[in-house]
Amino acid sequence: MKLLRLAPPCSQPLLLFITVSLMFTFSSSSYNVTYDKKSLIIDGHRKLIISAAIHYPRSVPAMWPGVVQLAKEGGADAIETYVFWNGHELSPDNYYFGGRYDLVKFCKIVQQAGMYLILRIGPFVAAEWNFGGVPVWLHYVPGTVFRTDSEPFKHHMQKFMTYIVNLMKQERLFGSQGGPIILAQVENEYGFYENAYGEGGKRYASWAAKMALSQNTGVPWIMCEQFDAPDPVIDTCNSFYCDQFKPINPNKPKIWTENWPGWFKTFGSRDPHRPPEDVAFSVARFFQKGGSLHNYYMYHGGTNFGRTAGGPFITTSYDYDAPIDEYGLARLPKWGHLKELHRAIKLSEHALLNSESTLVSLGHLQEADVYEDASGSCAAFISNMDDKSDKVVEFRNRSYTVPAWSVSILPDCKNVVFNTAKVSSATSEVEMVSSGLQPSPISLVKDLKTQWGVFTEHAGIWGNADLSHNGFVDHINTTKDTTDYLWYTTSFQVNEKEDFLTNGSNAYLLVESKGHALHAFINQKLQASGSGNGTVPPFKFRRPISVKAGMNEIALLSMTVGLQNAGSFYEWIGAGPTSVKIEGLKNGTIDLSSSTWTSKIGLQGEHLRIYKADGIQNVNWTSTSEPPKLQPLTWYKAVIDAPPGNEPVGLDMIHMGKGLAWLNGEEIGRYWPRKSSEHEECVQHCDYRGKFSPNKCSTGCGEPTQRWYHVPRSWFKPSGNVLVIFEEKGGDPTKIRLARRTQKRMS
Ligand SMILES: *[C@@H]1O[C@H](CO)[C@@H](O)[C@H](O)[C@H]1NC(C)=O
Ligand SMILES: *[C@@H]1O[C@H](CO)[C@@H](O)[C@H](O)[C@H]1NC(C)=O
Ligand SMILES: *[C@@H]1O[C@H](CO)[C@@H](O)[C@H](O)[C@H]1NC(C)=O
Ligand SMILES: *[C@@H]1O[C@H](CO)[C@@H](O)[C@H](O)[C@H]1NC(C)=O
Ligand SMILES: *[C@@H]1O[C@H](CO)[C@@H](O)[C@H](O)[C@H]1NC(C)=O
Ligand SMILES: *[C@@H]1O[C@H](CO)[C@@H](O)[C@H](O)[C@H]1NC(C)=O
């Protein structure tokens, strides 16, 4: 590191940066990872680490090398990921590590990039991921209570933890074996919930730490937001700001496991943005106040493919307004601004890690922290926490203008090489450029229109019913999350003497449900839909319906939209209807709540796997170039060509209702162009100054939360791609578009 100080920091930034990067490229010889109160100590050297969270199943193997490399170019030394238990242990002892779940391949890509890896095994992860990452089957192992002193939970948790650790050891991936892993995490943000579990919670937290330590990985363990983490486990911080964080034990380094550079979205919400100036401010403040390891959660958020989104209502996109966008492109200027920040911090590394800070007050809300080490190297961070006014401060006989809510970094205690509020990096214009679906030559008919295959589901029980029950069974207990969909059907009599109006009757349907969404069909016709909103699953509605004299069939299609992923006892929260009534008939209200309801789990098309190559022939698709519009419960398929070029691709579903989509059998995920309320607050220009909260800088009021759905390029063949859509309530498939995500750089 001495080399670095020979040249003045400003003169040759590029060369210096390359030197820094090379120093973090390690050989495959084994090294020790320990720590002291300043930082992690790797092979005897204190290290300052910038880490970038990238979750392997939220992108695809073909994207991994690119996003990892882009994180490295952005100045990251480490990649951080959770391990997604429910993606790996599909049923007890039945493990899966293929495709997007090829954890070892991901780790090796990080290793080949010459980066470190932080493995947050959990195995509970929250993460806006279905059921918080815990397999749904575990909820049905008798006697299991998640995340407390529950024998079956601990048994399966330890078994999985051990399995992953052994896999990593086998592949020589721990630092102690020459691999990239320098840290591992057990549990996740348990401190917030521990009290809710009483003494069992305390015993569990302590057990989890001991169990992790007994794995002998040769690298330290962390527990984030764990206020009683036992020695030698390091407790770490997750927040928008962690400058004030202090580990419970003063001999532990100050680690920030989750700095949220944006936020996630739920269907029906606005689009949150965190300004790059504020992200940079928070990071600079953290290092100013003695932090030594910082991780962006997320650096690349990616996509909740298939039904992996947590919830309820988390969108399929997990873009997170992160420095690398959902599609794998650098988000500018955020990515570039943070890259410059990282360079400035690295220029200060030696002084930061080898001296104690001296605090110098420079005004009411202005202060400098000065790090001067024995060798004479000196770095200073000057901050102005005033959220309105820029300030001129005197520091070491020079004056510095420090913009409001910003930090200036002086790696030589004289020259400002970076200020968090001055964004000078390139910006870009990103566009989704749409084109109609390009029919594959093999699917063309005379009129050159796309030839569609159409298959319509019966509204209600298909095949044999799964169960009949007086009153409502819980939705999740019944599907066990093998599908989003559960039918509840029954029938009711209407008197001949009712007044039947031309457009129906005076009847109303009243539904109350624990969530998450529901479509009501009467006599095969869609009559009403309802859903929870925000993160509140329960809902009720009262809608006019048409009924006929005599027997009427009612079929409710109840849906989950991602299972709860956090909270105490979250696995016990149910879903599905609780009360159904018909009102407004002359004969009075008919309460169907305790009628005999017959149920069917899932859709026929799901059961027959008609979205997969091996199942697509299982139904007779009606072939047409004019597919029905606004028709509920309809499967559509089209054979299309890949869009030209190599830009990332998004499926434009703005003219569709709600459902699921696949390409070549790969799960694109849930689509639902549900709009956010236009009455919420959105901003034209975001004022970066002052404390950030998720709703501070939103856009997209009154617009669909998610219009485009990422379809990874690697899923396309040049020609003959099969797109399959299941539409629940009705849309216009002829208006589905594929859009290329184009990025024009500007300076
Ligand atoms: C790791 O550190 C310990 C304690 O400092 C030391 O005894 C051991 O030799 C080191 N191992 C390696 C591989 O450097
Ligand atoms: C600042 O100026 C004063 C007076 O000229 C001088 O005594 C002091 O050493 C200077 N401080 C620094 C840090 O240069
Ligand atoms: C109407 O109400 C009467 C009296 O409660 C009952 O006997 C009859 O079965 C009801 N008819 C229908 C169609 O619900
Ligand atoms: C959610 O639904 C409730 C009741 O229908 C409504 O009052 C509230 O405004 C909705 N919230 C949002 C964020 O749409
Ligand atoms: C699901 O079933 C279990 C076991 O029968 C029961 O304890 C639990 O209360 C049910 N959950 C809901 C939400 O009904
Ligand atoms: C498709 O239609 C053919 C001819 O009508 C019939 O024999 C076959 O059983 C049908 N297949 C399915 C899966 O419904």
Unique ligands: 2-acetamido-2-deoxy-beta-D-glucopyranose
* Class of secondary structure makeup: alpha+beta
Beta-strand content estimate: 25-35%
| Extended strand count | 42
**Spatial strand order of the main sheet:** 4-5-8-9-10-11-12-14
In the CATH scheme, the class of the largest domain would be Alpha Beta
Q: What is the CATH superfamily of the largest domain?
A: Glycosidases
**How much helicity do the residues have?**
10-25%
In CATH terms, what is the architecture of the largest domain?
Alpha-Beta Barrel
Mean pLDDT: 94
The span between the termini is: 32 Å
Nearest-angstrom radius of gyration? 28 Å
Largest sheet: 8 strands, parallel, barrel
When the domains are counted, the total is 4
The general outline is globular
Residue windows where pLDDT falls under 50 for at least 5 positions:
1-26
Q: Report the CATH topology name of the largest domain.
A: TIM Barrel
| Count of individual helical segments | 12
GO molecular function, one term: beta-galactosidase activity
Enzyme class: hydrolase
GO cellular component, one term: apoplast
Domain Beta-galactosidase beta-sandwich: 367-423
